[in-house]
Amino acid sequence: MGVEVKVEGLSMAFGRQQVWEDVSLTLPAGEVSVMLGPSGTGKTVFLKSLVGLLKPQRGTVHVDGCNMVRDRERDVFEARKMFGLMFQDGALFGSMTLFDNIAFPLREHTRKKEREIRDIVMERMELVGLVGAEDKLPGEISGGMRKRAGLARALVLDPQIILCDEPDSGLDPVRTALLSQLLIDVNTQIDATMLIVTHNIDIASTVPDNMGMLYRRSLVTFGPREALLTSEEPVVAQFLNGSPHGPIGMTEEKDSATLDAELAMGNGLDFQTREIVPQLEPSPGLPPRAAVHRRRERVLGMLATLPHAAREAILATMPGHTHPTPPPAAPDAETLAMEPLRVDPSTWSPRPEGQA
């Protein structure tokens, strides 16, 4: 099973440019999470900070007892072996075949023999649907195949945490849908903790157990996907609806004068609530996701802390969970007048003589 990643008070800046500050969240073990946000909000920087490739100025990232921000580089290097990284462009070596690209981490970081390496690589290539393409070069295959090869390479060291940086970038809607299903299937089979950075609302609404959003150098929200998809926060609603009207501008945030002008023109922020579609399930033939039961117990435990709309959406999408039956309404006077009088003989006694 994957391991929990606990982020507390993380702040990152490059010189005077503050990327984000005081970010705190927990990636639950074995669950799939998504991080949304407009371009330029530091989502990729956040991924690199989790794995210890960049060092934030403040805060901690705890992974299985190691602080990826402050611990010795030797300890961080060892903890980094728990991670698998799927880069935005695949980051494949153009002069290597797909087989050699996927085998590269095994040859660099283990002492396994070539026969064992071949078995592992072919197993991972089969997992992502690339059997038969072992001898092809990255330049000879489609963008979707390069994405899958990048995912296979991220899986060869049996990671407990998988970080995916915009895996849908450059893919058409069909390939994006296939990749979404592949990510769910991978989580089903290896039960790893996963964090996906994306702009794609279809991936965000169908794949994850949890969702978060970075905006204006801070974490707007992070929690069960239903909480974000029903959020009334203007920046979240604008992003989910893909509307030009709202706090997000071409660079990042709009100033108050621009927002006031939009409101004066009737371009308000009363966005239509996005329909919550069912989360993707594993492909036929695969077992149920182990994360589903763990998430159910965790989310039901925090239900009382969530907004009403999120609670309703969570209860509606949880299989086997029903709303409590409301008490029957009290009958009105007209109904009572039409009902026959029913008397319980055990409690009835004759009226004493002389009483009206």
Helix and strand arrangement:
Layout: E1 5-14, E2 17-27, E3 32-36, H1 43-50, E4 58-63, E5 66-67, H2 73-80, E6 83-86, H3 98-109, H4 114-127, H5 143-155, E7 161-165, H6 173-190, E8 193-197, H7 201-206, E9 210-215, E10 218-224, H8 225-229, H9 234-241, H10 256-264, H11 290-301, H12 308-317, H13 333-338
Parallel strand pairs: 3-8, 3-9, 6-7, 7-8
Antiparallel strand pairs: 1-2, 1-4, 4-5, 9-10
Helix pairs in contact: 3-4, 3-5, 4-5
If you had to describe this structure to a student in words, what would you say it looks like?
With 356 residues, the protein is an alpha/beta fold. The chain has a domain at 5-82 and 159-254 and 276-317: P-loop containing nucleotide triphosphate hydrolases (Rossmann fold, 3-Layer(aba) Sandwich). Helix content is 36%, strand content 17%. The protein has helices spanning 43-50, 73-80, 98-109, 114-127, 143-155, 173-190, 201-206, 225-229, 234-241, 256-264, 290-301, 308-317, 333-338, and strands at residues 5-14, 17-27, 32-36, 58-63, 66-67, 83-86, 161-165, 193-197, 210-215, 218-224. The strands form 2 sheets. Strands 6-7-8-3-9-10 form a 6-stranded mixed beta sheet. It has a 4-stranded antiparallel beta sheet with strand order 2-1-4-5, covered by helices on one side. Helix 6 links the parallel strand 7 and strand 8 (193-197). Helix 3 (98-109) crosses helix 4, helix 3 (98-109) runs parallel beside helix 5 (143-155) and helix 4 packs across helix 5 (143-155). The longest helix is centred in the middle third of the chain and has 18 residues, at 173-190. One of its GO terms (molecular function) is ATP binding. Residues 5-241 form the ABC transporter domain. Residues 318-356 are annotated as: Disordered. This is Putative ribonucleotide transport ATP-binding protein mkl. It comes from Streptomyces smaragdinus.
